[in-house]
Each structure stands twice: as structure tokens, then as C-alpha cells.
């Protein structure tokens, strides 16, 4: 497809396709077996997004889920608006193009950027939005992240009840729920190394932690609508697990937090667009 095709106002009642598609800044777009997608290019670097339809899901984990934590209280969440989520973690090539430097320990254009803290991510997002007007990307909320990771599943992983190192990058010496041991790569791998989930999203389990917009806090006891986390806190949420973590920590429901100024060689980000997040404070 080419960018000569005009933007079309779609039927807002059909959540399968966003009302405005494609966006003026999109370099290419389309629809496949995973849904609607759209991408942009900056200095020759292409980065794709997947359309995530609005809907509801059970966030957190059942009391019967093996190796769960107490902070994963399961509750119903309704997301009233669709949003775009990057199909991969932000690559080092894109970060380098925008920021002019690459802080990552494990170098590789197609590997996820790491060794970035939450504050670094805000600087990157601000610069990216400045060079591509109208794109208005940010970080996903914690609820948006888990909803997209699950892609309609209710199991510990979007792959099912268990996971192996042929499906995700984590420390295979410590498998989930007494599963067989696997490989420990001791470093990140390139994005799109492993199969995507049913919504076309890659490496939602393992490789690098992904910063979310929310402050960390306890889940509500009751159902919630478009949650954005507490108004303040001492740690920002990270999701997904990483190359250095065990199988327990790459579950869909697992929650991690760190100080906004903390940098680690297993923490990166995944861009989102169209989220209904509340005010962000530094």
C-alpha cells in the first residue's frame, strides 16, 4: 500500500477497524489474519503497530494459578476504547535514530533497547512525537498491556498453561511449575525471534521488561473501567519478564515495579497510541 490513499473515516460502531484509518503519518498499513496494522518510518527505520479492539477481560490471576503472587487479585476490567500497540518492543535502531545514542548492553539494531529507565522513555517519546507530528505515542497502561498480552486467553501465558525457551527468552534453568529446563541465553535476542500471540504482538513474554504508564499500586477489589493506576507512588509498573528472569515472572499476570530513575539491562519499552491514561507525572 502507498500513502497516496486518503485517510477514511470509518464506522465508529465497528471496533475491528479504528474510526480514522490509516493515519496521515502512516508509511504502510493493512489487515491480515491478526487484525489491522499500521506502521511509520523514521530515518529508514520501520516500526509497526497493531490495532487492539476495546473489550473486557479478567485482569490478574486465579487463586489456583501455580506460582502466582498475592498482588495479582483477579478482577474484571473494561477498556472502552481501542488503541494501537507496537507489535514489538522498541528496537535499538529506532532509539538510536531518535536519541542519537544507544545505551543498551547487548548491542544489535533489531534487539530491544534496554538499560533505559522510565524517565528516559518519556524523553524518547517526547522527541519521537516532535519529529512525527500527530502520532502522539506513549506508554500503555498496565491494564492495556495485560489485555494485549493475553489476546483473549485466560491461561498463565498466551501460549497456554506452560512455556518453554523455544517460545520466549527467559532463564530456562528455572522453568515454570516444575516444567523441563531449557536454554539460558544470558542476553537479549532480536525482536520477532519467537512466535507472536493471536493479536500479532511479539515477545510479550520475556526478553525485556516493558515500562508501563502507571504508578504501581494494589488492584481494586471490584470491576474497573479504563484503569490508569494510582495518582502517585514510588515505583512505575513493568510487565512481561526478561531474559534474566525465571518462568514464573514471564506470566501474563506477573507484576513488577521499579523506581522511575532505575536503569537495568533487562528493561525496555513498547509504544502505545490512543490510550486513555490519566495525567503523567515525572
UniProtKB/TrEMBL annotation:
<dbReference type="InterPro" id="IPR005532">
    <property type="entry name" value="SUMF_dom"/>
</dbReference>
<feature type="compositionally biased region" description="Basic and acidic residues">
    <location>
        <begin position="258"/>
        <end position="268"/>
    </location>
</feature>
<dbReference type="InterPro" id="IPR016187">
    <property type="entry name" value="CTDL_fold"/>
</dbReference>
<protein>
    <recommendedName>
        <fullName>Sulfatase-modifying factor enzyme-like domain-containing protein</fullName>
    </recommendedName>
</protein>
<feature type="compositionally biased region" description="Basic and acidic residues">
    <location>
        <begin position="8"/>
        <end position="20"/>
    </location>
</feature>
<dbReference type="Pfam" id="PF03781">
    <property type="entry name" value="FGE-sulfatase"/>
</dbReference>
<dbReference type="InterPro" id="IPR042095">
    <property type="entry name" value="SUMF_sf"/>
</dbReference>
<feature type="domain" description="Sulfatase-modifying factor enzyme-like">
    <location>
        <begin position="51"/>
        <end position="273"/>
    </location>
</feature>
<dbReference type="GO" id="GO:0120147">
    <property type="term" value="F:formylglycine-generating oxidase activity"/>
</dbReference>
<feature type="region of interest" description="Disordered">
    <location>
        <begin position="257"/>
        <end position="282"/>
    </location>
</feature>
<feature type="region of interest" description="Disordered">
    <location>
        <begin position="1"/>
        <end position="20"/>
    </location>
</feature>
<dbReference type="InterPro" id="IPR051043">
    <property type="entry name" value="Sulfatase_Mod_Factor_Kinase"/>
</dbReference>
Amino acid at each position: 500500500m502507498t500513502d497516496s490513499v486518503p485517510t477514511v473515516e470509518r464506522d465508529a460502531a465497528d471496533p475491528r477497524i479504528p474510526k480514522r484509518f490509516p493515519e496521515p503519518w502512516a508509511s504502510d498499513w493493512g489487515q491480515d489474519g491478526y487484525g489491522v496494522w499500521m506502521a511509520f518510518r523514521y530515518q529508514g527505520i520501520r516500526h509497526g503497530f497493531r490495532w487492539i479492539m476495546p473489550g473486557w477481560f479478567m485482569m490478574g490471576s486465579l487463586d489456583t494459578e501455580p506460582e502466582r503472587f498475592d498482588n495479582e487479585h483477579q478482577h474484571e476490567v473494561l477498556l472502552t476504547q481501542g488503541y494501537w500497540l507496537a507489535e514489538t518492543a522498541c528496537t535499538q535502531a529506532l532509539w538510536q535514530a531518535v536519541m542519537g545514542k544507544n545505551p543498551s548492553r547487548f548491542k544489535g539494531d533489531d534487539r530491544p533497547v534496554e538499560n533505559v529507565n522510565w524517565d528516559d522513555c518519556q524523553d524518547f517519546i517526547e522527541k519521537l512525537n516532535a519529529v512525527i507530528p500527530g502520532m502522539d505515542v506513549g506508554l500503555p497502561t498496565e491494564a492495556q498491556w495485560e489485555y494485549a498480552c493475553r489476546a483473549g486467553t485466560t491461561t498463565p501465558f498466551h501460549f497456554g498453561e506452560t512455556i518453554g525457551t523455544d517460545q520466549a527468552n527467559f532463564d530456562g534453568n528455572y522453568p515454570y511449575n516444575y516444567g523441563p529446563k531449557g536454554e539460558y541465553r544470558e542476553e537479549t535476542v532480536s525482536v520477532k525471534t519467537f512466535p507472536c500471540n493471536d493479536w500479532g504482538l511479539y515477545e510479550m513474554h520475556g526478553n525485556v521488561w516493558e515500562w508501563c504508564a502507571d504508578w504501581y499500586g494494589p488492584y481494586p477489589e471490584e470491576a474497573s473501567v479504563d484503569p490508569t493506576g494510582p495518582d502517585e507512588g514510588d515505583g512505575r509498573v513493568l510487565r512481561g519478564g526478561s531474559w534474566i528472569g525465571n518462568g514464573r515472572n514471564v506470566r501474563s499476570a506477573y507484576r513488577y515495579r521499579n523506581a522511575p530513575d532505575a536503569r537495568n539491562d533487562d528493561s525496555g519499552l513498547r509504544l502505545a497510541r490512543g490510550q486513555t491514561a490519566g495525567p503523567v507525572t515525572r
